[in-house]
Amino acid sequence: MANRVSRLRWLSGGLQLGVVLTFVVSALSSDKEGGDHALTSAAESELKILQMEYQQRLLKARAPADEWYRRQLRALLIRYQKAGDTELVGILTSELADPDPNRPLPGARAWPADLMGLRKTYVTQARNYTAPVEDWYRNELRNLERARVRAGDLEGAQLVRARIEAVTVEPTTPLTSRQLSLTNQWTVLCGGTIQGSGGRITLTGPGSGYGALQLAIALSPWEISRNVKVSGKIRIRGQAGGFALGRNEKDCVTVYWSRGTSWGVQHVGEERRILSRPALAWKPESWQTFEIFRERDDLIVKIDSTVDRIELPKGIGRYCFGVTTAYQPSAVDVDDIKIEELMGDKKR
Questions:
Q1: Which residue intervals of 98-239 are DSSP H helices?
Q2: Which of 4, 189, 293, 345 could form a disulfide with 217 if both were Cys (CB 3.0 to 4.6 A apart)?
Q3: Using N-to-C axis directions, what is the helix angle for 113-150 and 154-166, rounded to 10°?
Q4: 288 & 158 share domain
Q5: Averaged pLDDT, groups of 10, the chain, 348 residues long
Q6: Distance between terminal CA atoms of the chain?
Q7: Count of domains in the chain?
Q8: Whether residue 158 is found in the same domain as residue 218
Q9: Which of 219, 203, 228, 220 lies closest to 326, judged by CA?
């Protein structure tokens, strides 16, 4: 009898212990699942925050291209209004209200080359502006993936990895001579005539700038910031010619050869300020290779094998690339132009 009572007490105690062990195991399992869920939720929250910052940076980086695209659309709209093309006027009016150069144009007609070139150039410009942001985003995603792995959140790391693989970054595409030769996209300042053919741009005077100087300037819509390089070929014909970087004839910097001397000049309102006399081996009447890019507050200009640095005034922001000529009869030709973004520490 005693043995039976003892056995029953043992079984009862065993059952109680089993219940306790089952509860503990269940609780531990529940805690683990809850912890994993919390870690994954943290990864999702970090991804959302990073995605918001990424979108903000994209919009900011693309803003110059967006502004340029709208400006060019307005210019085309005026031209098509004058031509009486009601269909194109309607399309451009809609495009101005909601710009999207990737949206297919309605109808089956052959659309003008200037409109199609404008849309294609905008896409290239926007891609060039946003490529550094894409690189930043991918790098931040990799950092987040490593952080999730260190925290033991393998499921969260997998979520981040899927986002990394979903981000496709197209290579930065240089703007080519063919795009730059669309003369309707250039702005001619203070007189002069611009022509484009087969990738070549020619600016011919006389201009009306600065009296006897007869300065003529033509600016492209492509901006030169600190990490953008312009390269190609240039030929000066006559007494003066070279490059212009600016917003208009009253706010620009010109680097040019004139009657045997090389000049770097800032134009501010009606005043011309000499910045330097760069040691550049200009060869009038001959084609020469060139490179121009910004390095902090300096403008680096290379003509053939000669290079010089022009210190720019403080506070100069983005300037558009252009050409200039003066002292008639004169003209300047540029060809094989490429405008590209220098990535990382890449130099000339």
A1: 113-150, 154-166, 177-180
A2: 189
A3: 170
A4: no
A5: 40 39 38 50 82 83 82 84 85 79 69 75 79 85 87 84 69 47 67 77 85 86 72 93 86 90 88 91 95 82 93 75 89 86 45
A6: 101
A7: 2
A8: no
A9: 203
